[in-house]
Amino acid sequence: MTLTRTVADDRPGLAVASTPEPPATASRRPALACAATLVVTGAAGAALLVAANRAAEWDTGDQFGFFWLGLLVFTLPAVVWLVRRGTGARLRIAVLTAYAGFTYLPKLLRTPDGPLYHDEFAHWRQAHEILVDGRLFEQNPIVKVVGDFPGLHSTVASISALTGVSIWHGALIVLITAHLLVVLGVFVLAEEIWPEPRTAAVAAVLYGLNSSFLFFDTQFGYESLAIPLLVWTLVALHRAMRGPAGRARYGWSAVTLMLSAATIATHHLTALGLLGVMLILCAVATARALRRSHPRAVTWTAWVLTVAAAVLVVTYLAVVAPRTAGYLDPYLAKALDQFAGMAGSSGSGKRTLFRESVAPWWERYAAFGAQGLAGIAMAAALWRLRYRREGDAVSRTGALAMFVLGSLYFPAALLILTPSGAEGARRSWAFSYLGIALVVAPVVVALLDHATRRPVRIATAGALLGVCAVALVGNTAAGMNPSYRFPGPPVFGSDTRSAIPEVSAASDWLRATQGRDLRIVADRYSGLIFGSYGGQRPVTGSQSFRTYDLYLAQPDREIPPLLIQQLSSWNFGYLIVDRRMAREVPEIQIYFETNEPVPHDGKPAFTLGQLTKFDGTPWTIKIYDSGNIAIYRFDFASLGRPVR
C-alpha cells in the first residue's frame, strides 16, 4: 500500500502538479534540522515524563505539570514540521512515525514490565493460556467474553513463541506497532478524502487529541489492535469505491472484507463501530446518488461491502460469540435507566465529574473547555463543507459521512454523566473523534494559509497550537483518572494500585501448593491477581451467583443454603478474604462487581467480624494467612447434610 500520492491522482478532476526535485544537499538540510530538533525535544520530553512519574511516586503534586510539559515539548515542534509547506512526503512520514512512538511513551513508562489496568490482566492471562495450552476460545474468568475474540491474544502468543520474549514484551511489540498503524492509517484515510498532505497530517494529529489515544487505546486490550484495523478497513473501502471496475476494485474489496473479518475476530465493540461507520457512509452515498451527485456503481460497491461485513459480524456474534449480547446489555440498560433518572425530578443516577479528583483545577477546566472547542470546530467544518465543495464524488461522500460520525461525539458525551454510561462514552470517542479529526483538519490548514503576513501567521499558528494543547489536556483528563496515568502509593479499591506484593505472594503460594485452574471465590482486586498470575478461576459474584453473600453474612447468621449448594455442586474449592475491606473504602466504589448490593456511604461496608467469621465455621479451613490476605479451603462434607 502507498501512503501518499505524489503524482497525478486517479480521482477525476484532481491532479497534483509535479515539482522538480531539489538538489540532494538542499533536500537533506530540512531533514537534518528536523531530526536534530526532534531528537533534542524527544529526549527532553522523555526526561520530563520520567520526572512526572517520580514526582507522583513521592506524591509531590508536580506530576501534572511535568507530564504535560514533557508531552508538549516534543509534540508541538513535531506538529510544526508536519504542517510546514516545505516538508517532503518522506520526511512527513518520518515525523508521523516519531510522533506515534513518542505518544506511546506515557503508557510504556506507566507499565513497562507487566499488566496494570483491570482488563490487561484478563488479556495477559488469555495470551498466556494460548501460549501454554495452545487452545483458542477458552473462557476467561476475569472478563467473560475475552476468550471469544482471540485476534490480539493469538498474535501476542505467536510473537512470544517465535521470538522467545515474554508475553508482556510480545504484547508491547504488537501494541507499539498498532499505535503506529493508527497514526499512519488516519493520515492515509484523510488523503483519500482531502488530496493535500498537510491536511492529512493535521488530521492524524487531531485524532491524537481524543481521550483514548494516550492511555486507553495503548493498553494491552483488544481495542488497541482493533482500532487500527477499523481505520485501515475504511481506507480499503474508500479505495474500493474509487477504483476502476475490474481488478483494482475487486482487490480492494477483498482487502476490505479481510480486514473486516480480522476486526470482528479481535473486538466486538470495534466491529460494531466499523459496521456503523460503513452504514453512515452508505446512507450518505445513497442520498447523494438519488440527487445524481454520486455514481451509482460506487454506491452499490459501498452497499455490497457493508452488507458482506454485516453478515460477517452477525454470523460471528451469533455462532462464535453468542454471550456478547448478554455481556453488553446490562451496561447499556443501566446507563439508560440512570440517564432517565437523572433527567427526572429526583435527579437519581447523576454522576459528579471529577468528584474527589486530585487533578489540578486547570485540567478540570480544560476538560469542559475541550467539549466547547470541539463544538466550535465542528460548526466551522460544517460551514466549510457547505460552501467549499472539494474533491471528487467519493471524497465528498467520505467528508459528509465523517461529519455525521463526528457529530455523534456530542450525544455520547452526555452519557459520561451516568456511572454506567461513562465507560461506554469514553469507548465511543475513539470512533467519533475520527470524524471530528477528518473534517476539522482542512479548517485548520485554511486558517494557516489565510494568514499571509508573517506576524499574523505566527499568531494564528500559536493560537491553534494552544487550542490543540487545551483539547489534549482536557480530553485526557476527562478520559483517564490520575491513578491510571501516574504511579503512586498503594490504594485499596483502585484498578491500578491495589495489587500489593502481599496479594501476589498469596497467589503464588496457592498455585505452588494447590495447583492452577482452581475455582475460587474472591473480591474484584484479589481476583485480578489470582486469576492472571495465579492461573486460577475466580468468581467475584453476580446477581445469579451471589458469592458476595459469603462476606456480607453476619457472624451469627446462617449462610444461604442455596449459595452453599451452588458452591459445592460447581466444585468451588477456595475462598479468598482481603481484610482491608473492613478498614478501607475502595477508590472506585466497587468491592466485587458493578451491581453489588453493598452499601457505599463513605465508610467500609464490612466489619472485621464479618471477614474473620470463617475461622470458626466448620466448612472452611484456613490454610494461609498473611495478615491482610487469608485463604480458606471449603469442606462442604462437614456440613452434615447431603449436598446435591
From TrEMBL:
Coiled coil: none annotated. It comes from Paractinoplanes ovalisporus. Residues 1-26 are annotated as: Disordered. The keyword Transmembrane helix applies. The keyword Transmembrane helix applies. This is Glycosyltransferase RgtA/B/C/D-like domain-containing protein. The chain crosses the membrane at residues 31-52, 64-83, 167-190, 220-237, 271-290, 302-321, 365-385, 397-417, 429-448, 460-480. It comes from the Bacteria. Keywords: Membrane, Transmembrane, Transmembrane helix.
